[in-house]
């Protein structure tokens, strides 16, 4: 027989949970059962401090087989008199963590194995959710400046390049009994000190902005490149090509990519393809 849990939550909390279900490709039952497993035993209902007012909505889910075992003994031991209140508190506790920390919480097993690999300098195999597998030297677990996502900074042994991979795309990590030596300590330390998911350090992109483009540049914070120099409306930015593609695609005709040439050609080709679509 199923054990259905019905919880009334502040609308904002429910929206965060629903976004995480979509963002991390999880089923509602999977996420909520995991939160119960990880937070149920450590959360003290007597010391709950949440005092939300305003609009609320109801969320429902079923306890899985594992969590149904000894569930009522757990409630008795914890002296939980109101199931809905108990689950509301642990779901609020989860949702109030920053997105970066919620991701670390959800991928705890992968994070713990990665930390061992980094500490012991173990060559590791990363298996991604799309089925791809690579061998890497893992160096650092970092997050974007606005703490929206976590990345594994590593050296891709197959391609011979430094790379960052999003934690959420990794299905599993296998630690080989093979150690590695740090390739470039100065470079690695500089990445740790000022982490950039796009590995822009030492790379320069030259752009020209319109007046409105300059306004956009001031307003758009996510993935904004660092200004190295500015001369007569031309900006020299510390920025990788991938970062420029992500950031400046929003600007349309408010920016002109000047250098590097290969990046300028990429934008030109994209705009030409877009024009053809609008002509039809």
Characterization of this structure:
By secondary structure, the protein is an alpha+beta fold. The protein has three domains: 4-96, Arc Repressor Mutant (Orthogonal Bundle); 106-193, SH3 type barrels (Roll), CATH 2.30.30.100; 204-279, no CATH class. The protein has eleven helices and eleven strands. A five-stranded antiparallel beta sheet has the order 6-5-4-3-7. Strands 9-10-8-11 form a four-stranded antiparallel beta sheet. It has a two-stranded antiparallel sheet with strand order 1-2. A hairpin with a 4-residue loop joins strand 5 (150-156) and strand 6 (161-166). The longest helix is centred in the C-terminal third of the chain and has 19 residues, at 261-279.
Summed over residues and divided by their number, the pLDDT gives a mean of 93
Order of helices and strands: EHHEHHHHHEEEEEHEHEEHEH
Largest sheet: 5 strands, antiparallel
- Overall 3D form: globular
Helix and strand composition category: alpha+beta
Strand content: 25-35%
Q: Examine the coordinates and then state which fold CATH places here, giving the name of the CATH topology of the largest domain.
A: Arc Repressor Mutant
Number of strands: 11
CATH classification, class level of the largest domain? Mainly Alpha
